[in-house]
Amino acid sequence: YYAFLVAERQSKTEKDGYSVSPKDWSVSIVNKKDEVFGPYKLNHFSYCALKSATQKFSDKNLIGQGGFGDVYKGYINFRTKDAAKPNDRGLAVAVKRLRSNRTQGHNEWENEVKFLSRLNHPNIVKLIGCCCEDKHRMLVYEYMIRGSLEAHLLRENGTELHWRRRISIALGVARGLEYLHTRRKPVIHRDLKASNVLLGKDFNAKLSDFGLSKFGPQDGETSLITRVVGTRGYFAPEYFATGHLTLKTDVFSFGVVLLEIFSGCEAIKKHSDGVARDLAQWTKPHLSNKVELHRVVDKKLGSIPMEEALDFAKVILRCLSSNPRTRPTMAEVVADLEKLQRRMDSYNSNQLHYLRTRR
């Protein structure tokens, strides 16, 4: 069979893919084994179908915004690939619409298709299909009903993310990242953050947004040299300083996500003096100090077992090591979090010492 794809790439930059102007976009027909679509068939949706599915990209359907474009909720009939109503065989989807005036957004659109069409894991969001019609570029994903992890963590009075659930979410993200890192051709996410972790009905966590992802070092290489892209607060120090990208770059970013789960704070934290500082930099001294640990833990958690808090803090500190060589692999992180989860199930609550999180 054949699939639609943007094919005419005008020029290739030295390090980071293709430089294509929106006026140069065109559609070609390529074989299913093309490097972008890989071995999995994606549904191709028409622009009209997605426009109708999202009620003409109505603000009422807007569920997210980012550098790539805006994300809308819509309903699709997968038998006909047309718009549908929720009660008429319509399944909810998330439609990401590229802003047509962003040249870089085209590269990110292509990158998402390239990676997500190859990936299949319970902790990675599923790409259902795409739209590549005239100047329109859209991606269609499974709809994650509970939105982003970041949104839940920052809710002032949110109580849904209790301690046990946070550990489960952390483990889900870790498993998704382990899957990426242990593939035959390892994948570096390169933009791991709480807003790119989406939650399903049962708070199952899935990694999303692969617009900046790259294949990791291969054939004996230890790192890639690339321009620094991503989000402030999540950069590994060696990556920010030199542009050297490794699997351990993702591990550092994951450590920041763990810290957000632990503290309920954003990666860049504004302090009382008005100065914004990296959360990792501010919390590191407290994470290694049993007496000071209560200053870090999210006050919405109330009281949590001290032993569990210390174990979780140790995992965070290992991931946030300034030396990439001493950071754990994601397989090791998964093992640590699974061990913590088993301990939580076996602890006798009457024998636990609790850490009070009120500050």
UniProtKB/TrEMBL annotation:
Keyword Transferase: yes
Transmembrane segments annotated in the record for this chain: none
Record-level GO cellular component terms: plasma membrane
Reactions listed under catalytic activity: L-threonyl-[protein] + ATP = O-phospho-L-threonyl-[protein] + ADP + H(+); L-seryl-[protein] + ATP = O-phospho-L-seryl-[protein] + ADP + H(+)
EC number: 2.7.11.1
Family indicated by similarity: Belongs to the protein kinase superfamily.
Protein name from the UniProt record: non-specific serine/threonine protein kinase
Organism: Manihot esculenta
